[in-house]
Specification:
By secondary structure, this protein is an alpha/beta fold. 40% of the residues lie in helices and 17% in strands. The longest helix has 29 residues. About 3% of the residues have low confidence.
Length: 747
C-alpha cells in the first residue's frame, strides 16, 4: 500500500512525465542501505544502524517440523497395511467395541480388526497397540497367513541381519574412536578468522542450522575423526553448514575435498564456495572433465603442494591421480548417488579424515535416535526466513494458461522448469512452447542425452542463458537455481507423490513467490489414487512438510541410504516402523545392554476402560491415543497424557480415566514380568511366570502374617482379598500392592 501511495505521489508531482508500461511492485529484502543524493535520502538497514543482524520475521505460512510420522496411527484408513509383531502384515479394518465376559459380568473393550490372507481376521486389544505398527514399504504388500511359520522366519532372519549390522557399526565406531587427527579448537587466530567468516554471511541462520554448526564444531574440536550426516530439504541451508566446517579445517592448515555426483552440481558448488570464500586467503579450485589437460595438471600440482586448500569435483577426486598434501575433510553431497567402488573408497577414509555427508533425502527421526553415538546425524527441518510456500494449482491441461504462466515468470526475470516425462515427444513439446513463447531461450534435458550434452544444457540453465528447461524427471534431485520459480508439469497424474514433492522442490528457493502448475487429463479418466495424490500435493504446501505419504517413501530411501542399499529390501519385508524398533533393540544388544522382551499380560479389571466416541469422536485419533497410552512406561508419562487429553477434549469420563489407570497397572506388571492380573468384587489374583521378579521369601512372609488377606494357590498364583465393590478403590489397591512388590522385587 505504501509503495502504491508513493507511485501516486510521484505521478501527481510529475504530471507530464511519461508513464512506464506495466509497472509493478513486489516485496524485497535489503542487506545493505543506499543513498539518493539529489533527493537527500539515505536508507539504512537495521544491521548497519545497530551493528548486528536482526532476526527476520518469518512467513506466516505454517512450517511443519520433521517428526516421526510412523509412530502416529491417526492417519490410518480402512484398508491400510499394518504390521503386528506376532502375526505379520495385514490390513486395518477399523476399531470395534465388544463385550469381554469375565467372572464379574461383561466389560466393554475396544479392539483393532486386522484382516490377513484368506480373509482371516484377528482382533487386537487396544492395550497391545505397542505391538502394532503402520506398514511403510511396498504399496501392495503380500498379506501374511495366520498361523504360518513364514512371518516368524522372516522376523528371525531380519533380527540376525540387524544384529550383525549393529556389531559392524559398533566395530567401525570403535576403530574411529581409536583413530587420531589434529583437533581444530576454536581459539586464538582460528577463532578470530572464523568469526570474521561468519560475519560475512548475509542472512540469519535458522535454529537447526545453528544446532548443526555447533555439533560440527564440537566434533572438530575432538581428536577423533568426525563422521556426520546433515539432512535437510533442498534450500534449507546445508551448504552454509558445510562451508563453515570447510573453513575451520582449511584455516587450520589442512585440505578439504568436496565431492558432487555430477559435473553440473560440482560447478554449482564451486561457484558457491568461490563466492563465499572470496574474502579469505584460502584458494578454492575445481577439477572437471570440461577442463583441458594443461589446466588439470596444474591443479594436480597445486593440490599436491598444498596451495589449494579447498577442491571441488566429482568422484574423479577419489582416483589415484590426485595426491593431497594433507587431506583433512571430505564433504560428500548425496552419497547414495555414487557407485559401489566410490562408496568403498569413501568407507576407507572413514577412520582417517573428517567426513561430512549432505543429503536432501529425509532420515527417520527414530533412525537418528537409534544411531546416536554410532553415526552422528543433524537434521535441518526449518526453512530460511522469508521463504514462501509454493502456490500449487492442479487443473486439466490448458495450453493458453501454460503460456501465460511462462510469460509471467519471464516478465519478472525468472526461469521455468517444464516437465514432460516422455523422451520421444519432448522435442515436439519444446517446439510447441517455442511457438507460444517465441522470445524465450529453450533447452532440453533428459536421461538419454550424452552426459556432456546434458551437462551443457543444465549448466546453461543454471547460469541463466536458458529461460525454459523442458525436461524429464531427471531434474528430480538436481540443480539449485534460485531464479527458477515456476514449474509446469504435464500428466502430473502419472507421477508418484514423493516424485511430485521433490520435483516441486526445484522451485521456491529464494524469497520470491514460486508457482507450480500440475496439469492432468480430464478428472474422469484418472484413477482414484491419482486424484488423491494430486489433492494431497495441492493441499500440503507447508515448508518442510514432506507430507505423510511422500515422506513414507522418501524416509525408506533415507534409511536405505544411511544404512546401505541392502537394508531397503528388509524394510520392504517388515515395514519401516517395525524395522526401526528391531534395529534399536539390535544396537542395544550389540552394546551388551539388556533388551526386555515385550509381554502379553492378560489383565481383567472388571471395568469399562475405553475412550468413548462421545469423548474422542475421530476413530483415528482414538487409535493414536490408545497407541500412546499403551507405550506409556511410567506414571509421569501417563499424567502428561491425562493433562493433554483434558486440555484437548475436556473433562475426562470415568471410562477414559480407567483406561489410563489400567496402563498404570500394566506397566507395573510388565516391570515385574507377571503373566496375568484379575480384579473383581472379591479380590485381586496375580499369575506369575518363571521370569517374575518376585522375592519368594517376602511373599511367604506376607501369607504367614495375614493368611486371611493373602493366599497362595497350589499352582503358585497369589490372591489378595479386599472385598470392595468400589471400582476406584479396587484399582487404587491393585496399584498400591504392585508398588509394594516392586519395592521388594529381585532382578
Amino acid at each position: 500500500e505504501a509503495a502504491h501511495a508513493l507511485c501516486k505521489q510521484i505521478d501527481e508531482a510529475h504530471p507530464g512525465q511519461k508513464k512506464l508500461p506495466k509497472l509493478s511492485s513486489c516485496i524485497g529484502f535489503l542487506d545493505a542501505g543506499f543513498a539518493v543524493p539529489n533527493r537527500k535520502l539515505l536508507l539504512l538497514t537495521g544491521r548497519e544502524l545497530l551493528g548486528q543482524r536482526l532476526p527476520r520475521k518469518r512467513s506466516r505460512t505454517g512450517t511443519v517440523l520433521h517428526s516421526d510420522i510412523f509412530s502416529s496411527l491417526a492417519e490410518l484408513k480402512i484398508g491400510d497395511a499394518v504390521v503386528h509383531e506376532d502375526h505379520g502384515v495385514g490390513r486395518y479394518h477399523g476399531l470395534e467395541t465388544m463385550g469381554d465376559e469375565d467372572g464379574d459380568g461383561e466389560q466393554l473393550a475396544d479392539f483393532i480388526k486386522i484382516e490377513y490372507a484368506d480373509k482371516a481376521h484377528v482382533y487386537v486389544p487396544v492395550e497391545e497397540l505397542s505391538r502394532l505398527h503402520r506398514y511403510s514399504g511396498d504399496d501392495s504388500p503380500q498379506l501374511n497367513k495366520l498361523g504360518s511359520e513364514k512371518w516368524k522366519r522372516t522376523r528371525e532372519r531380519v533380527k540376525r541381519d540387524l544384529l550383525a549390522m549393529a556389531h559392524e557399526l559398533i566395530d567401525i565406531e570403535a576403530e574411529r574412536t581409536g583413530a587420531r587427527r589434529p583437533a581444530c579448537k576454536m581459539e586464538g587466530v582460528l577463532q578470530d578468522a572464523y568469526e570474521e567468516f561468519v560475519a560475512r554471511f548475509p542472512f540469519e541462520e535458522t535454529d537447526d542450522q545453528v544446532s548443526a554448526i555447533d555439533a560440527i564444531l564440537v566434533d572438530l574440536a575432538r581428536e577423533r575423526p568426525m563422521d556426520r550426516v546433515v539432512c535437510g530439504d533442498v534450500g534449507f541451508g546445508k551448504t552454509e553448514v558445510a562451508m563453515r566446517a570447510a573453513f575451520v579445517v582449511a584455516e587450520s592448515g589442512r585440505q578439504v575435498a568436496i565431492l558432487a555426483p555430477t559435473t553440473v552440481l560440482a560447478n554449482q558448488h564451486f561457484a558457491s564456495f568461490s563466492e563465499r570464500f572470496a574474502g579469505s586467503n584460502l584458494k578454492v579450485a575445481m577439477i572437471s572433465r570440461l577442463q583441458g589437460k594443461k589446466e588439470s595438471d596444474q591443479i594436480c600440482r597445486e593440490l599436491a603442494g598444498g596451495s589449494i586448500r579447498i577442491i571441488v569435483g566429482t568422484h574423479r577426486l577419489l582416483s589415484d591421480q590426485f595426491e593431497f598434501a594433507d587431506l583433512g575433510m571430505v564433504i560428500v553431497d548425496e552419497e547414495q548417488r555414487f557407485g559401489v567402488k566410490h562408496k568403498q573408497k569413501l568407507k576407507a577414509l572413514h577412520t582417517s579424515v573428517d567426513l561430512l555427508t549432505l543429503t536432501a533425502t529425509p532420515i527417520p527421526r527414530t533412525l537418528h535416535q537409534t544411531l546416536s553415538g554410532l553415526r552422528s546425524v543433524s537434521i535441518i527441518s526449518t526453512p530460511p526466513a522469508e521463504r514462501e510456500a509454493i502456490r500449487t494449482m492442479v487443473s486439466s491441461f490448458d495450453r493458453h494458461l501454460a503460456a501465460e504462466a511462462i510469460r509471467r515468470e519471464l516478465y519478472r526475470g525468472g526461469q521455468v522448469y517444464y516437465l514432460h516425462n516422455h523422451v520421444k515427444s519432448i522435442h515436439r513439446i519444446a517446439e510447441r512452447i517455442r511457438e507460444d513463447v517465441p522470445e524465450a531461450e529453450i533447452g532440453i534435458a533428459h536421461g538419454q542425452m550424452s552426459p556432456a550434452e546434458l551437462d551443457r544444457q543444465m549448466l546453461a540453465f543454471y547460469e541463466g542463458r536458458l529461460h525454459i528447461l523442458v525436461c524429464t524427471t531427471i531434474v528430480e534431485s538436481g540443480l539449485d537455481v534460485p531464479n527458477a520459480n515456476t514449474l509446469i508439469v504435464e500428466r502430473a497424474d502419472l507421477l508418484g507423490l514423493s516424485q511430485l514433492h521433490q520435483i516441486r522442490g526445484r522451485v521456491g528457493r529464494s524469497h520470491r513467490q514460486a508457482y507450480a502448475y500440475m496439469f492432468t487429463p480430464d478428472a474422469r479418466s484418472m484413477t482414484a489414487d491419482a486424484r488423491e495424490r494430486l489433492q494431497a500435493i495441492a493441499e500440503h504446501t507447508e515448508l518442510g512438510a514432506g507430507f505423510l505419504l511422500a515422506r513414507q517413501d522418501m524416509e525408506i530411501r533415507g534409511a536405505g541410504n544411511l544404512l546401505g542399499a541392502e537394508q531397503s529390501g528388509k524394510i520392504e519385508e517388515i515395514g519401516l516402523d517395525l524395522y526401526m524398533e528391531m534395529l534399536s533393540d539390535a544396537v542395544s544388544e550389540a552394546r551388551g545392554e539388556r533388551v526386555k522382551p515385550k509381554q502379553n499380560i492378560d489383565i481383567h479389571l472388571g471395568i469399562n476402560a475405553i475412550l468413548p466416541p462421545a469423548y474422542v469422536p475421530q476413530a483415528g485419533e482414538r487409535l493414536n491415543l490408545y497407541r500412546r497410552i499403551s507405550r506409556a512406561a511410567d506414571d509421569a508419562q501417563i499424567t502428561l497424557l491425562f493433562e493433554e487429553m483434558t486440555d484437548r477434549f475436556g473433562r475426562m469420563p470415568d471410562e477414559a480415566k480407567f483406561c489410563l489407570e489400567q496402563q498404570r497397572i500394566r506397566w507395573r506388571a510388565s516391570e515385574l514380568s507377571l503373566a496375568a492380573i484379575k480384579t473383581g468384587s472379591l479380590g485381586l489374583r496375580i499369575q506369575f511366570t518363571a521370569e517374575s521378579h518376585i522375592d519368594p521369601v517376602n511373599m511367604i512372609q506376607r501369607v504367614q502374617r495375614d493368611p486371611h488377606r493373602y493366599r497362595l494357590t497350589p499352582d503358585g498364583n497369589l490372591t489378595l482379598i479386599h472385598g470392595t465393590e468400589d471400582q476406584r478403590q479396587r484399582l487404587k489397591g491393585c496399584i498400591a500392592f504392585l508398588d509394594s512388590l516392586l519395592e521388594s522385587s529381585v532382578a
